[in-house]
Write a structure and sequence with these properties.
The protein is built from 7 helices and 3 strands; from the N terminus they run αβααβαβααα. It is mostly helical and 176 residues long. The chain folds into 2 domains: 80 residues, Periplasmic binding protein-like II (D-Maltodextrin-Binding Protein, domain 2, 3-Layer(aba) Sandwich), CATH 3.40.190; 63 residues, no CATH class. A 3-stranded parallel sheet has the order 2-1-3. Helix 5 crosses helix 6. The N and C termini lie far apart (75 Å). Pfam families: LysR_substrate. Keywords: DNA-binding, Transcription, Transcription regulation. One of its GO terms (cellular component) is protein-DNA complex. It comes from Prauserella marina.
Length: 176
């Protein structure tokens, strides 16, 4: 038989244990839910071509997550990650302009993109790899140089060059 004091203690213990179970369940739910704000930075091309799809996927998978996007050049984006003002950055790099590795930043490769060249018709077999040294061939550099010199206010240089190469920017750009 319980004393009156013991009976009161048991009643309160049951309430405390029930509240503790509710608290544990709430914490477990929070742990399995991704929420808050994620600050993303991306260089201009990625901000337009890659980030919108990634942000939409995050929103669908994690409705409690808000993603903000800042368009920044790669060096500034990496500095912002290191400073803690940006959580994650989409950046680029290539072997002709290697980035310095920074111990404070983890770099995870996401994709490899081919480097495409717009060449005059008949330059060589279409679709086969080309060495950069082949792009210094006089016939090619004369064609491109003449096209650039032909540029005017009516037709910007890049348009003149593409016209000389008989192509358009849209034909040469591939999306991931």
């Amino acid at each position: 038989m319980l004393t009156e004091a013991a009976r009161v203690l048991v009643e309160h213990t049951e309430v405390v244990l029930a509240d503790l179970e509710k608290a544990e369940a709430a914490v477990a739910e929070l742990a399995s839910t991704v929420g808050g704000t994620l600050a993303l930075a991306a260089f201009p091309t990625a901000a337009r071509a890659l980030a919108p799809g990634a942000i939409a996927l995050c929103g669908n998978a994690h409705p409690g997550l808000r993603v903000t996007l800042a368009e920044l050049p790669t060096p500034e984006a990496l500095d912002a990650v290191k400073a803690g003002t940006i959580d994650i950055a989409l950046s680029y790099g290539y072997n002709l302009l290697p980035r310095q590795r920074d111990a404070g930043i983890e770099v995870v490769p996401l994709l490899t993109e081919p480097l495409l060249a717009a060449l005059p018709a008949g330059f060589r077999d279409r679709g086969s790899p080309i060495a950069l040294a082949e792009l210094t061939e006089p016939r090619l550099t004369r064609t491109v140089s003449a096209a650039i010199r032909a540029g005017s206010a009516k037709q910007p240089s890049i348009e003149a060059m593409l016209a000389a190469l008989r192509t358009t920017a849209a034909e040469r750009h591939r999306y991931a």
